[in-house]
Amino acid sequence: MRASIAFLSFAVAATALNTPRNPHKKKPHAIDPKDFVYVDGLRLKDAKGLHYITGLNYWACLNLAADASQGGNYSRLVTELDQMAAHGVNHLRVMASSEGAPTPQPFRMNPPLMDAPGKYNEKVFRGLDICLDELSKRGIRATMTLNDEWQWSGGFAQYVSWANNNTAIPYPPSWNMTKAPQRPTPGTGWGNYSDTEDGAHTYNEYTTFANQIYTNQLAEQWYKDHIKTVITRKNTVNGKKYNEDATIMTWQLANEPQSLDSFNTSDPLFPWVDRISTYIRSLAPKQLISVGLESKQGEQIFKAVHKAPDVDYATTHCWVQNWGIYDMYNASEANLKVAQDFATAFVANTSRWARDVGKPVFLEEFGMARDNWENADKEYPYLSSASTTHKDAYFRTIIGAVMADFKKGGAYVGTCPWAYGGIWRPETQVMNEFGMVWAGDPPHESPGWYDLYDDDEAMNIVARQQKDVAAWIKRNSTHGY
Ligand SMILES: *[C@@H]1O[C@H](CO)[C@@H](O)[C@H](O)[C@H]1NC(C)=O
Ligand SMILES: *[C@@H]1O[C@H](CO)[C@@H](O)[C@H](O)[C@H]1NC(C)=O
Ligand SMILES: *[C@@H]1O[C@H](CO)[C@@H](O)[C@H](O)[C@H]1NC(C)=O
Ligand SMILES: *[C@@H]1O[C@H](CO)[C@@H](O)[C@H](O)[C@H]1NC(C)=O
Ligand SMILES: *[C@@H]1O[C@H](CO)[C@@H](O)[C@H](O)[C@H]1NC(C)=O
Ligand SMILES: *[C@@H]1O[C@H](CO)[C@@H](O)[C@H](O)[C@H]1NC(C)=O
Ligand SMILES: *[C@@H]1O[C@H](CO)[C@@H](O)[C@H](O)[C@H]1NC(C)=O
Ligand SMILES: *[C@@H]1O[C@H](CO)[C@@H](O)[C@H](O)[C@H]1NC(C)=O
């Protein structure tokens, strides 16, 4: 009955072209709370059959959905969720964690979900409830990320700091919005990366510090306590228990946990993945588990991490500029082609490794800057006015490679670009009272670098992917797949 009422309001909205958008029109596509996505061989399936993920990263969902007193903006949230749903997006990768400290810390999401071990900001937690409820209404499932290698949410380093009498975190170079150059209006940027003079450490010092989480028992106990608190929470908006809600497709151990520099059977990452995934399974038997590995360090580490029995599918992140393959100031076709060739090979290699492990694989992060050579002589290198010729061609290639792999029965099950900035733009940004601008780029990186805006061609590429794959699934299944 609910379905027919919802169908009626959909029909009314569709005919009343000049009336404001009916916020309930997405109801027919709402997720049945019992329709858990599951793994079948190298495929994901739901009640309708084969499930392909047309995803986007939207890590700040819990903060945007939180009360205005906590820096949230509900009107922006629903506008952007409607925009994504209208482009066929059926999955968002969001943070289900963020950590604070006794003294104010730079470069991270603020206010945090957890101020101190076991001490939660209920208003931000309610933001996560609202986020999940709004996703569910729009037929969008979630990956819930429970921790972070990097400083932008607190993450590993904050747990290690807590466990060591609040020792100082050796932050690597990170975007400092208040550093020179500054725009005339305070709090509107631009800033620059922190460097050694500002007290920045090397990436190696940072990861060595943060990765102590793999062996620190106190930090691990607090992390497991957090996992339990989130997974067993009851949503204050819709009353669903998190571990009984099919809107949550996946619990993810952490964003980009790092291994040792090269494969080493004694790497503490491997037993950590085993322990934490087994713990999550004991609390969330109906939902899936992924690690959040970038999978940038080759076949052996990929396989050692993803063979853990309670890890349901593999993850990959492909970062051509960060890994030194692509240069955002180089306008040449050759520069673009090197990136496209790398991405194609990366998808082919990781699909093969996943097939060897016998599990699906999800490309859950990739991005490319805008044509920022156009910004080289301007006041800020990441202005939204730059065109996106390279980015669009690159997105067509990497998303196309994943779709082709999926259609030929490979291990890939979907894509999830980084990251939706929606209506935000650097030109109009204003830091809120918590020092946040909530771009698609997290607070340790230059805002506007990898954002996908609501009017970007990349969103049409995402939408075409969903339509194309849906048509293929329909064709394929009519022949008895
Ligand atoms: C909230 O989002 C709306 C767009 O939906 C925007 O116009 C408004 O400026 C935002 N408010 C704040 C405080 O950022
Ligand atoms: C913890 O840090 C505080 C302040 O820096 C210091 O006074 C105290 O001695 C430290 N405690 C331990 C056990 O190291
Ligand atoms: C950010 O830059 C400002 C201005 O240069 C400086 O005072 C502050 O210490 C910097 N913060 C960090 C964490 O580097
Ligand atoms: C940031 O600082 C570096 C080194 O001083 C400089 O080369 C670069 O132009 C600065 N970036 C911006 C956006 O001003
Ligand atoms: C492997 O890791 C262990 C533990 O960190 C270390 O003691 C050992 O030297 C490493 N072996 C190699 C070959 O790097
Ligand atoms: C641009 O990239 C291409 C391909 O990597 C390279 O051959 C060329 O030298 C680069 N040009 C500049 C100016 O860096
Ligand atoms: C893919 O695998 C081949 C063969 O193992 C290797 O030479 C190549 O560097 C890999 N490429 C990428 C992008 O992973
Ligand atoms: C459906 O897709 C699978 C995997 O690509 C393929 O093996 C099969 O032949 C397809 N069936 C039809 C009828 O297209």
UniProtKB/TrEMBL annotation:
Looking at the record, the residues that make up the Glycoside hydrolase family domain are: 34-471
Q: Which SUPFAM superfamilies match?
A: (Trans)glycosidases
Q: Write the record's keywords in alphabetical order, separated by commas.
A: Glycosidase, Hydrolase, Signal
Q: Which reaction(s) does the protein catalyse, per the Swiss-Prot or TrEMBL entry? A: Random hydrolysis of (1->4)-beta-D-mannosidic linkages in mannans, galactomannans and glucomannans
Superkingdom is Eukaryota
Question: A Gene Ontology molecular-function term?
Answer: mannan endo-1,4-beta-mannosidase activity
Q: What class of enzyme is it?
A: hydrolase
EC number(s) on record? 3.2.1.78
Which InterPro entries does the record cross-reference, listed alphabetically? GH (IPR017853), Glyco_hydro_5 (IPR001547), MAN-like (IPR045053)
Query: Which residue positions does the secretion signal occupy?
Result: 1-16
- Pfam families from the xrefs? GH5_mannosidase
Q: Which family does it belong to?
A: Belongs to the glycosyl hydrolase 5 (cellulase A) family.
Put simply, this protein is called mannan endo-1,4-beta-mannosidase
Organism for this UniProt entry? Didymosphaeria variabile
